[in-house]
Amino acid sequence: MTHKLAAIIREHGPDAVAFYLSGQLLTEDYYVFNKLAKGLLGTNNIDTNSRLYMSSAVSAYKLALGADGPPTCYDDLELAHTVLFAGSNMAYAHPVLFRRLEEARARNPDIRWIVIDPRRTDTAAMAENCIDP
Predict the structure, then answer these.
(1) Does the global pTM surpass 0.85?
(2) How far apart are CA 133 and CA 126, in angstroms?
(3) 64 lies in some domain
(4) How many domains does the chain have?
(5) What are phi and psi of 6, to 5 degrees?
(6) Where is the Molybdopterin oxidoreductase domain positioned along the sequence (predicted)?
């Protein structure tokens, strides 16, 4: 693959290469990809799905909650007695937050997880109640 990538850059220039990253990476991961793209390969063509994903979240927050922002913070989620996952495989899609919820649950085994999702995900496998709509 490295030979093919080098050939593309040699033949078409560095802007023939682009990176489209997940919005769920850690800051350090974004840093490394930026160094790779800009520093090593010489392209500024780097984007994430965060921009597109979050623009729809902004609209949903405003419609549902009247403000552009989540209704809670991670610390509040860790203190919740019941966590409802609706259509989200948080174990896969939001692993950092999911690990925090797992740790909170390990400290307090009485925390209940309820999943509403037709899929049998990793998150659903760890919930007490799974509802298939």
Answers:
(1) no
(2) 18
(3) no
(4) 2
(5) -60, -40
(6) 3-126
